[in-house]
Structures are given as structure tokens and as C-alpha cells.
Design goal:
The complex is a heterodimer. By secondary structure, chain A is an alpha/beta fold. Chain A is built from 12 helices and 14 strands. Chain A has a 10-stranded mixed β-sheet with strand order 5-4-6-7-1-8-14-13-9-10, sandwiched between helices. Chain A has a two-stranded antiparallel sheet with strand order 2-3. Chain A has a two-stranded antiparallel ribbon with strand order 11-12. In chain A, α10 links the parallel β9 and β10. In chain A, α3 packs parallel to α5, α6 crosses α12 and α9 crosses α10. The chains are: A alpha/beta, B alpha/beta.
Chain lengths: 415, 411
């Protein structure tokens, strides 16, 4: 018999807000987080914009000594984690920290610090500080989060870039099912860096102006950064301590396109499979899905494949499901995208407001669903999907439901 | 309904043998893969040793069209996948690709490719950035190469958490198979010993001889142990539900029957200093502790870990601890984040053949390390069950429990 898992804490850092209220207000209002890059010198690049995190001052959150050792990715992860942890009220109770673990998704991790080191080492042949290399491993942010709060449960890091912090949520769910933890910190963190920025640019997947998911004029991503943290908790444990419950994680699906290293399977077959696998795992019928937080990268290929995949699952009804492409506002946050978008999906369910896809002006005949253009929609929603598809077709779909304490029939005794 | 999970194929690409047979033969004989590093210039470093792979003709394992797109670490792992699949006797044409999965662990993935990419950026600016390098530079490229090469469309996971990367990949695979979410999952992973990676480990002071004291080398549990020697390679297990394996008459090496996952909080680059978390992980994993005859150790010739793991084994097994044959395979293949897959293959073979590989390199045991580490010589011994430990510096501790599989036709 499966354990039910709910979300009891949320934390965020993003281009449109450095805490949940600011983030949510921004995306509901359709605010665009795209700005000129300051994290590195953009002048050699044709494209000079990114959805960069702004007005987050490390001195407000960390000591000078900590700042010397922390990467930008670590900082985002810790700030978002502290918000989630605080809001979950886990420190106020007699909680067994042996049964609280951490799984975060990583993209490039602390690579900005590593770039600093190797730039000095290769170009100036000077001896940069080895402490910049502490962040070389993708495990670093995960370990810092666990060590800061003394969490002794299971610990790992997923590493599938664009779907990494969605996969982390699925893995965290499983660790609760394994009986090894009652609470799991999940989601992920990622920062801008030259390697990712130039890599995506070299693949011609970046839009020079803005991110326009599903729009005919779309040219691709705006790279973003930030952190989205979700605290997953076993239901009985949450109820016993009167935890705040935002939503229920009903299930998830993971699968592979097995098609190409960077392009999605064009007919939406991989998208269809992962959505079906997620709904199956969540014991949720397609008819119950009220909204989809799309992967929506605004690459010419993804948006078509995703549209086709959604239609394959939902048929005629697909037209009635409002889809949110919030990468139009927060950018493609790579290793933290899954976490940030999952937070948005949970807030959608909790607040009954579906965020918009902004910059939507010219419809594409090949993308003809309802993408909640430019303005958010007020609607009571029961089930929200969140899609994340990574390079190589590493697909993840998360199924969140409005928490209903009486829904026993879904989990049932029949396994 | 809970499924039992068994191991039906092994793929090993290691510095002491490519392929299960060569690896196992050399392993039992205590052959060391550790030699002066040849692949790149280490003359400016204090440390000179590493366990590097021999030259491998990857065309023997991978289709040319896919080979072109892979970097070296990708080729290493996909070759191990090929070896594992061949060893398992699976005919993929008869399998449902949705019910097959991949679960890979890699600590530092394409460190060399990322470095090459970055250097081309520094040299030529953004126009120097090569998209073909970038697409294979992401950590999940390895799993993608595997899924594309073999048309594997089910579960697809990549973990990157230092020295527990492959252990977590195998633990999740086990859990998902147990839950019936797949019939077969190829699990394990690997890492390569690249020049930039070597530089980073050296600058962080991890390599033997740390602090410049003593001789360079791997000597687990030795009183003069002074840091790690890096290695590289890949190990892949074919994990399968028991019903699926029996239905196709597969040879079963061992059963995977328990996992333990725990975290320690001693500090960012510190192991579990008191061994409590390692002990917890082993206790969770070993459902029948009285049957544990062998432990494949995480010990890696560092002062902290070798001591902590010894403490942990004593905590869990008490008096019985002295009866358990412990081996450190890292004494032969070196330390690398992705070593767990190869070590798991070793455990499967130990159980299947009733043989324990030796720990080599150790000369004078640390008085605090007073258990049986199977020093220098292999041991013939029936193994009812065994534990594989993985411990990361930073605090992830994992133990996997494997037991002998007795089919109805055997004793």
C-alpha cells in the first residue's frame, strides 16, 4: 500500500522574485524576468540577455567567510531552502532528523566558480584559490542544505539538467515510499554560467529578444537561473504535526525518447509516454487534469512535440486544458527549472489561478491549444501536471493534486 | 505486490580487465591497476599514480554512428552496458522497450569535454564554442547514449553525488523493479580520469601523499595510509525481476535484496567520522545480518573513512564482525566516484563463485583497523550474503545488500 505524499514547504529564488509571495505575484501579473546579463561579461556574445536573478544580496544571507566558499548555485539553493524549511515549520516540532533527507537536482552546479578558477589558471597562469573548486561536484549544494539543518536521512543529487529537479521530486517521493524518510527536501538550484550559455547559443537554441513559448515567432530559450525547493512529507506525519499542506504529489512518470541527443522525438511520442506513465502512477484519469505547466522552452521543435504529445493523451479535451509556459517569464532555469515550475504548479492549485504564457502574439497553426496567453486565468483546478524534458529525451512529468483528505479511493488497497 | 530483484548480467570496463572474465581473474589474483599516469602529463604534480584504463577499441562495442557522438566517458560506460547485455543473454527484440530502464551514476561525467569546451571559449570566444562537444557534455548524456544505442525507453535516471553516484543509481533501480515499474534496469555507471579532474583533486589535497607525507599509494586500513589514488572505469549490472529472469531461463548471479540510505553531517568534504550513518545504512540494508559473510568496502586509503567504516562494521555486527571477510577493491582499481558499479559486479561474482578478492597494498594495519580485510590473498569462502558500501565525502552513505540465489534446481 503506497504512502500518500504532500507538499508542506515551498521556497524560491528566480528572475522574478526571491521569495514565494514576490515570485507568485510576478508570474500571475505576467512579469518578464529577462534582463541584460551581469553575472559574466556578455559583450563577446551575440545574445546579451538572460533571466538573471537580481536584488539578492549574499551579505543579507551569509557571512563573509561563507560567501568566499559558496558558489552562486549554493547561495540560491540555501536561500530557497531556508524559506521552504521555515514555512514548513519543521524546526518548531520534535522532528526526527534521521528521517529527513535531501535530493536536489543539479544542472551545472557550482560551475561559475570553477570557470573563475580555470580562467585564471589557463589565461593568466596565476594561482587561483583552490576553494573555488569545492563546488566542482554537483553534490555540493545538496550536502550544504543537509549539513546546515542537520538532516541525516537519505541524500543524493539527480543530474539530468533540464529535468533534473523534477526527477529529484520523483526520487524524493520514492525515498518516502521506501520507508527511509518521512520528509524529503527536493527540487533544485542552478546558476548562469558561460559554459551553459554559450553551449545553448552554439546549438542555436536561444532567442535574442524574449522567450515566446508556442508563438509562431519563437526562436528558443532565454536562459534563466534560480532555485525551487519543495518539502515532501508523508501524509500521516504531516497531519500529526498539523503541517501546512499546499498540495498532494499524486505521482510521476520518467521515461526516455531514445531518439536524439538534443532534439525531441518530433511526433510527441515521448511526451505522450511520460504523461501516460505519470497519470498511471498517480492513478489519475486524463479527464481529471485541469491545467498543465508546460516544458514550453520556445524552441521550434519542443513546442510542437509537446503540443502533439498533449493531444495524443487528451484528445479533443486538450483544447479545454489551459497550459502555462512560465519559461516566458522565469527563463529556462536548467537544473532548477523542474523545481521552480513544480512550485508554480503547486501554487496554481492552491490559489486557483493559472499563470500566463507571456509574449504570445502570433499563433502557430502547429501549436493550437490554449496556452493561457498573456493573462492569468482564475479557475478552481484539481489536478495540475508539470512537464520537464531534458536533452536526450530524459522526460519527467509530475502530477500534483489539490489536497483532499478524504480521497482514499485513489490510493485504495488494491496494489 | 513486491517483486524480487536479481542480477543476470555483468559488464566491466576496468584498469584490471575489460569484460567480466578478465576482470575477475585479475581481481582474484590481486593484480593492481595502479601505475604512473601516462595519458596526460603529471610531471608538475606531487602525485604521479593512477589506475588508468588500457587502450580500448570501442568500435568493438558501439555502433560507428553513435560512437562519433560520444566522448570518452560515454564510450566507457556504453561499452560496459554492451558487455552486461551480452552477458545477460537478453534479446532486446523480445523485450518491451517501455519496460526496460537505465539508471546511471557518474560523479564528474564529462569533465574532459566540459574543460575542452571551456578552453575553446577562452581561446576563440563564443564562436569557438562547439555544439557537438556541448551536447555530449551534460551529465545525462551517458544515459542518453545508452538509451539511443539500445532503444531503451522506460525509466531513465542519472545521479551525480560523489562516491555514492552509482550506489544510488543501483538502489533506485532495485526499488523501482521491486515496485514493478520496470522488468529490467541496467544500473551502475562510471567515471573517467581526466586531466582537469586530476588537477582538481590534487588542488583540493585529496591525493596520496596528502601533505607530502609518506609514500604515494593505496593502502586501505594501513597505519600509513595517506589519501586516494584515482582510477577510472565502468561497471553495469543487469537487474531484473525474478519472474522475468526465470521466464527466460536467465543465469542468476545473485539476488539484490536490501538497501540502506543515510546521511552524515560532519562537514562539506568530510566522511561520516564516527561511522554511525554508515552503520545505519548497513543495518537497513542487511535484512538477515547473521548471513553477511562479505563486505565490499568503501574504504579508500583515507585516514577518516577506513577507520569509520571499520567502526561501523563493528557497531552493526558486534562479535561477528571478525568473521566477515572485508575487501577493498579500490586497492586495485583506485578511487573514483563511479567505482560502485564495478565493485557491485565484484560482489555478484564473489557470491556466485564463493570467492573473496584480496585487499592489496596494505602493509601494517592501523591498530584501530583490526578486522579481517582479506589481505594480499584471495579466499575461497561460501558467501550467503554480502554488503556493498558507498560513502561520500560530504555525507551520503549507502549500503546495498546482495544474497546468494538458490534456484529450485540447485542445493
Amino acid at each position: 500500500m503506497r504512502k500518500r505524499v504532500v507538499i508542506t514547504g515551498l521556497g524560491i529564488v528566480s528572475a522574478v522574485g526571491n521569495d514565494i509571495p514576490e515570485f507568485w505575484n510576478s508570474i500571475v501579473e505576467g512579469k518578464d524576468g529577462t534582463k541584460e546579463i551581469t553575472v559574466f561579461d556578455p559583450s563577446p556574445y551575440r545574445i546579451k540577455i538572460a533571466a538573471e536573478v537580481s536584488h539578492l544580496h549574499p551579505e543579507d544571507h551569509f557571512s563573509k567567510k561563507e560567501i568566499r566558499r559558496l558558489s552562486r548555485c549554493d547561495e540560491f539553493g540555501l536561500v530557497a531552502f531556508r524559506e521552504a524549511w521555515g514555512s514548513a515549520r519543521l524546526d518548531q516540532d520534535h522532528i526526527d532528523k534521521e528521517r529527513i533527507g535531501v535530493v536536489l537536482g543539479a544542472g551545472s552546479g557550482g560551475i561559475l566558480s570553477v570557470e573563475k578558477y580555470f580562467r585564471d589558471f589557463y589565461q593568466e597562469a596565476k594561482r587561483p584559490s583552490p576553494s573555488l573548486l569545492i563546488s566542482y561536484s554537483l553534490a555540493t549544494t545538496t550536502d550544504l542544505v543537509a549539513i546546515e539543518s542537520g538532516l541525516k536521512g537519505p541524500r543524493t543529487t539527480t543530474a539530468t539538467v533540464c529535468s533534473s529537479s523534477s526527477a529529484s521530486i520523483g526520487v524524493a517521493y520514492e525515498m518516502i515510499q521506501m520507508g527511509l524518510a518521512d520528509v524529503m527536501v527536493s527540487g533544485g538550484s542552478d546558476s548562469l554560467c558561460e559554459v551553459s550559455f554559450s553551449g545553448f547559443s552554439s546549438l542555436k537554441l536561444v532567442d535574442p529578444e524574449s522567450c515566446k513559448p508556442f508563438d509562431k515567432r519563437r526562436q528558443g530559450l532565454v536562459i534563466g537561473e534560480g532555485a525551487g525547493i519543495l518539502i515532501l512529507e508523508e501524509l500521516e506525519h504531516a497531519l500529526r504535526r498539523n503541517a501546512p499542506i499546499h498540495s498532494e504529489l499524486l505521482g510521476y512518470g520518467v521515461c526516455a525518447d531514445a531518439y536524439h541527443l538534443t532534439s525531441p522525438e518530433p511526433n510527441g511520442e515521448g511526451v505522450e509516454r511520460v504523461i501516460r506513465a505519470a497519470l498511471d502512477h498517480a492513478r489519475t484519469a486524463p479527464e481529471e487534469v485541469d491545467t498543465i505547466n508546460a516544458h514550453g522552452t520556445a524552441t521550434p521543435l519542443n513546442d510542437i512535440a509537446e503540443t502533439r504529445g498533449i493531444k495524443r493523451v487528451f484528445g479533443e479535451r486538450a483544447q479545454e486544458i489551459p497550459i502555462s509556459g512560465i519559461k516566458s517569464m522565469v527563463g529556462h532555469c536548467l537544473g532548477s527549472a523542474g523545481g521552480i515550475e513544480a512550485v508554480a504548479a503547486v501554487l496554481t492549485l492552491e490559489n486557483g489561478v493559472i499563470p500566463p504564457t507571456i509574449h504570445y502574439e502570433v499563433p502557430d497553426p502547429l501549436c493550437d491549444l490554449n496556452y493561457t496567453p498573456n493573462r492569468s486565468i482564475r479557475r478552481d483546478v484539481r489536478v495540475a501536471l508539470s512537464n520537464s524534458f531534458a536533452f536526450g529525451g530524459n522526460n519527467v512529468c509530475l502530477v500534483f493534486g489539490k489536497f483532499n483528505p478524504i480521497s482514499e479511493c485513489r490510493m485504495g488497497n488494491a496494489e | 505486490m513486491s517483486h524480487r530483484v536479481v542480477i543476470t548480467g555483468l559488464g566491466v570496463v576496468s584498469s584490471i580487465g575489460v569484460g567480466k572474465e578478465a576482470f575477475w581473474k585479475n581481481c582474484l589474483q590481486g593484480v593492481s591497476g595502479i601505475k604512473p599516469i601516462r595519458r596526460f602529463d603529471v610531471s608538475s604534480y606531487r602525485s604521479q599514480l593512477g589506475a588508468q584504463l588500457p587502450e580500448i577499441d570501442f568500435k568493438a562495442f558501439i555502433k560507428p554512428a553513435n560512437l562519433r557522438r560520444m566522448d570518452r566517458v560515454g564510450k566507457i560506460v556504453v561499452s560496459a552496458v554492451k558487455l552486461a547485455l551480452d552477458d545477460s543473454g537478453l534479446d532486446l527484440k523480445n523485450e518491451d522497450s517501455d519496460r526496460m530502464g537505465i539508471s546511471i551514476g557518474t560523479g564528474l561525467g564529462s569533465s574532459d569535454t566540459v574543460d575542452q569546451f571551456f578552453r575553446s571559449l577562452l581561446k576563440d570566444g563564443p564562436t569557438g564554442a562547439a555544439p557537438l562537444l556541448f551536447q555530449t557534455a551534460v551529465p545525462n548524456a551517458i544515459a542518453s547514449h545508452c538509451s539511443i544505442e539500445y532503444g531503451i525507453k522506460g525509466i531513465n535516471l542519472t545521479f551525480s553525488h560523489k562516491e555514492t553516484s552509482t550506489e544510488m543509481a543501483m538502489a533506485l533501480a532495485y526499488h523501482l523493479l521491486k515496485e514493478g515499474r520496470a522488468d529490467i534496469i541496467l544500473a551502475g555507471g562510471g567515471d573517467e580520469l581526466s586531466e582537469p579532474l586530476y588537477h582538481v583533486y590534487s588542488m583540493l589535497g585529496a591525493l596520496s601523499p596528502r601533505g607530502g607525507k609518506g609514500l604515494e599509494g593505496v593502502r586501505p586500513f594501513d597505519q600509513d595510509r595517506n589519501g586516494i589514488v584515482l582510477g577510472e572505469g565502468s561497471g553495469i549490472l543487469v537487474l531484473e525481476t525474478l519472474e522475468h529472469a526465470e521466464r527466460r531461463g536467465a543465469r542468476i548471479y545473485a539476488e539484490m535484496a536490501g538497501i540502506g540510505l543515510s546521511g552524515s553531517i560532519d562537514g562539506l568534504l568530510r566522511y561520516d567520522l564516527k561511522g554511525d550513518s554508515i552503520a545505519k545504512a548497513m543495518s537497513f540494508a542487511a535484512r538477515e545480518p547473521q548471513t553477511v559473510d562479505h563486505v565490499s568496502a568503501a574504504a579508500n586509503s583515507t585516514p577518516d573513512l577506513d577507520r569509520a567504516e571499520t567502526l561501523a562494521i563493528k557497531k552493526v555486527f558486534g562479535e561477528r564482525a571478525k568473521e566477515i571477510s572485508i575487501s577493498s577493491l579500490k586497492s586495485m582499481i583506485g578511487e573514483f566516484d563511479g567505482s560502485g558499479g564495478i565493485r557491485a559486479c565484484g560482489v555478484a561474482l564473489s557470491i556466485y563463485h564463493g570467492m573473496i578478492p584480496p585487499t592489496i597494498g596494505t602493509e601494517y594495519l592501523d591498530p584501530e583497523c583490526d578486522l579481517d580485510y582479506t589481505l594480499h590473498q584471495m579466499k575461497k569462502k561460501e558467501v550467503r550474503s554480502a554488503l556493498l558500501n558507498g560513502c561520500s565525502n560530504g555525507g551520503s552513505n549507502i549500503s546495498l545488500w546482495f544474497k546468494r540465489h538458490c534456484s529450485s534446481s540447485s542445493h
